[in-house]
Amino acid sequence: MTVSIRPFDPLKDAELIHPWVTHPKAAFWMMQDATLEDVVREYTGFVEHPHHDVFIGEVDGTPAFLMERYDPSKLELVGLYDPLPGDVGMHFLVAPTDTPVHGFTRTVITAVMAELFADPATRRVVVEPDVSNTAVHALNAAVGFVPEREIQKPEKKALLSFCTREQFEAAVGVAA
């Protein structure tokens, strides 16, 4: 599988991701009832924010996942933990499919992490998935994340977890 990641264009890509973020399997994305206009508005705000970046990931040339990178000292986790220099927050969502491929989501999260660590300034990736999202906890562990503690965000109880470059490289067996 060849994975590539490109910047998200809200006007072009909102229609693409609308069925992804509203799909029942994306319940933890908390956009189940979002209209296309809601998605355009939300993602335009993300793209325009100076501390939030959004990307579309393609696998073998087909759009297959959404990736968000943010500065956790400015968004999402402000006041919930003590950020360190080089911390980068991440969210990812794999497009729903009727024909799942074994190992696909692990390939995606590995590519997302490699992309984040491709920036030499990134020292640690921070995630805050819902505590009940056990599937993503397993994926996170597979690429080196270590849970620290549960935190209460306005919209959910989350499992604050961290992954250093060294933890990622050890987990996947390659240099980032």
Instruction: Please give the largest β-sheet.
Output: 7 strands, mixed
Number of strands: 7
Radius of gyration: 15 Å
The coarse overall form would be: globular
Q: In which range does the helix fraction lie? A: 25-40%
Strand line-up across the major sheet: 1-2-3-4-5-7-6
Mean pLDDT: 93
The proportion of residues in beta strands is: 25-35%
The tally of helices reads 5
Poorly predicted tracts of residues: none
- Our measurement of the CA-to-CA distance between the termini, rounded to an integer number of angstroms, reads 18 Å
Secondary structure class reads alpha+beta
Oligomer: single chain
The arrangement of helices and strands along the chain is: EHHEEEHEHEEH
